[in-house]
Amino acid sequence: MRSLFYVVTALAVMGLAFWAYRENYATQEAQAELDDLQRQIDEAHRTLGVLRAEWAYLNRPERLRDLALMNFDRLGLLSLAPEQFSRVDQIAFPAPAEAAPPLVGSVAVSSQSEEPL
Fold first, then answer.
1. What is the pLDDT of residues 47-73, one digit of tens each?
2. 77, 68 in Cβ contact below 8 A?
3. Lower CB count within 10 Å: N or C terminus of the chain?
4. What is the pLDDT of residues 13-40, one digit of tens each?
5. Rounded CA separation 71/75 (Å)
6. Max CA-CA distance within the chain?
7. How far is 114 from 53, CA to CA, in rounded Å?
């Protein structure tokens, strides 16, 4: 009976060792995948920073002004003139929504007396 107990205990220890071995390699694989994803995220952040810097460089006001002047005739651009702007009172704003009609024969209810102060 004692030898059966030793055999079962030895099998249990070997089973647990096999399980720990597999979990160790699964954990290492997951860690490697996490490191790869983190590297990809860092690379994407660096690329995004470079793209933002390039965008800011290309959208400099003096560069855009020079490009507009170089291509003024070809693009058919018009110079800004004061006549192109209008006053606020000339803008046709939408009419405000109509309020609900007043109630006819309504009664005012109040807990205060109607004596003037």
1. 999 999 999 999 999 999 899 888 888
2. yes
3. C
4. 999 999 999 999 999 999 999 999 999 9
5. 6
6. 108
7. 70
